[in-house]
Fold:
Amino acid sequence: MPADRDPNQPLLAGLIGDPITHSRSPMLHNTAFAKLGIHARYELWPTSALELVARVDSLRAPHILGANVTLPHKIAVLQLLDRLDPAVEMIGAANTIIREADGSLTGANTDAPAFLASLREDGVYDPAGQTIVILGASGAARAAAMALSGAGVARLVIANRTIERAEALLGDLLAAADSDPLLFALPPDDADLPELLAEATLIVNATSIGWHDDQSPLPAGLIPPSALVFDMIYRPTQLLRDAAACGARTLDGTGMLARQAALAFERWTGQSAPLDLMRAALHS
Ligand code: NAP
Structure:
């Protein structure tokens, strides 16, 4: 933690994005600060694109621990930071900024390890050797795809409305992969998708479809009953209801959300995060 600061002033972390009024991050982090007796506070920092440079610069102050970054700044923020974790370079998006002791700023992505940990621990699923379909090709999908590629997936299908984004992700995966998974980029209405879905043991919704209404990114009839369906959205969704109705196993995004927060907390404080407590705070 920064040593050159007024000890009476609380340390601060916060969320940079727009809009962020409904974020649960303050509840998660303030619960953890209180549990560990850290004199710190997590705040919401609504920030427009025009305000982003000044906001990021303000993080260099001694009483700042760091920040989380959400839409629409996860990519734009990269060029404002002093260094990026290798995973950020691969994924192309940061969701966490760490203020180092010298005031410099490091970009990290805790979505990718949080996704993988939730999949393994909450979903009891090992991606090695599996066929997996990801719906979406933006920041969250990129984090999931990079994590799965590093975990030895055999076949990875990226289905996205804007096919160019799926193809770009596929190119980046090929460039970054240690292993050699079979990769497919498809639009969601591609004639080959039903067959690939039928062979999948995991389907990941990394689109934003499901937040505001009863829409689903996938027709119920295409969900394989033997698959695990992981919806990154952290509330009950139509996709998960359809998956449960056909007998598939389901996992929502709350485990991933708590874990990405816990990993950010650990980078800021150097202390172990109370994950179970943070997770419980999500439901309070
Ligand atoms: P984003 O940058 O807004 O990407 C949205 C994705 O959804 C894109 O692939 C987009 O396709 C697709 N999409 C949106 N509306 C669509 C529509 N009407 N029809 C078809 N496709 C549509 O969001 P993100 O940051 O990657 O996050 C994606 C989701 O993951 C969000 O729901 C977010 O809340 C969730 N998430 C959860 C966690 C967690 O910890 N649980 C962490 C990160 C993100 P196009 O490319 O064609 O626009």
Q: What stands out?
A: The chain has a mean pLDDT of 95. The first strand starts at residue 11 and ends at 17.
